[in-house]
Please model this.
Amino acid sequence: MDGRPAARAALALALLLLVRAMPDARAHERPEAPPPERGAERLLWGLALDLNRENARDFEALPGIGPARAAAIVAGRPYCKVADLGRVHGIGASTLRGLAGQVDVGAPPPARCRLEKDH
Model:
């Protein structure tokens, strides 16, 4: 059996996949929607989730965070800095490193943080 038809089919499939993967030439013409202010969708924009504002369901989108840890994050508020997340049971240095850039404490920090800073 000649392998040429199979090779042609593989080449055609590869070209089809390549064309589909190429960005739309008109993409720059479409207005871009602003990024969401809250919610897990922020991660799709490369934006961090605010530890003091998001709900538990949003935190579940983070790597290594399931329902129990997400609920513990919400219960541990307020957070003055991302490192404070380490006080949540089950979140250690490794998890904190994995969450780098994906969580923040927003601005301005909670009033409690400002009070602790003044003392």
